[in-house]
Specification:
Length: about 220
């Protein structure tokens, strides 16, 4: 998984006045949980753009002025209700030998057969919550929809991996191809239906011929 480095400075004071002064200076107050100690720090607001304003997911290396590097993941973020300015960020410290839970983006690839026939692709889960060792977590989870026909669904079981555990029930749908007014029947399905229709017609003809022979048979006296 890709990593982003954030250069930060430890906060000596965490009161409202100090926090307001940081924000006025264009900095974001942050806190890191999960380690031996809770660490309060601040960083330039622009440094978080590539972490927050992206569909991708990253781990973070928090590089403090005293030379300490902390590996972490973004846990929670607070925005201003009007300006959308970042007000506060919570991080969770991670370790190579301890599983971590993260939201991993879903990436759909391929052109579904059902969509080519006029169906509509509906993506239900754009991220999946998974748990695993940091080194085993992917940048994204790929879902191949090429063979999906109209009415087909992709469940989380189709992207299961030994590297991580998906924290959703097995019947959770990632995406599906739904019918529409412009949808047409798949060519293979048409062939199957034609074959079944021919077999049925032959059966009806045989039955009709048998009925005529019975009707023409002379009655015994």
């Amino acid at each position: 998984m890709k990593s982003i480095t954030i250069n930060g400075s430890k906060r000596e004071s965490v009161g409202k006045g100090a926090t307001k002064a940081l924000r006025n200076a264009g900095k974001v107050p942050c806190v890191v949980y999960g380690g031996d100690d809770t660490i309060h720090f601040s960083a330039e607001g622009n440094d978080f753009n590539s972490l927050v304003y992206t569909p991708d997911v990253h781990t973070v290396v928090i590089a403090l002025e005293d030379g300490t590097n902390i590996n972490a993941v973004l846990q929670d973020i607070q925005f201003h209700p009007v300006t959308d300015e970042i007000l506060h960020i919570d991080f969770y410290q991670i370790f190579d030998d301890k599983p971590v839970t993260m939201e991993i983006p879903v990436r759909v690839v391929g052109n579904a057969r059902g969509v080519r026939n006029g169906g509509v692709l509906r993506i239900i889960m754009r991220t999946l919550r998974v748990k695993g060792l940091p080194g085993n977590l992917p940048d994204f989870i790929e879902v191949d929809i090429t063979e999906m026909k109209i009415g087909h669904k992709k469940y989380v079981t189709s992207v299961a991996s030994d590297d991580f555990t998906i924290l959703h029930t097995d019947n959770t749908v990632i995406c599906q191809v739904r019918t529409s007014r412009t949808a047409i029947v798949d060519e293979e399905e048409e062939e199957d239906e034609d074959a079944e229709g021919e077999e049925g017609a032959e059966g009806e003809e045989s039955g009709a011929e048998g009925g005529e022979e019975t009707a023409e048979a002379p009655a015994e006296s």
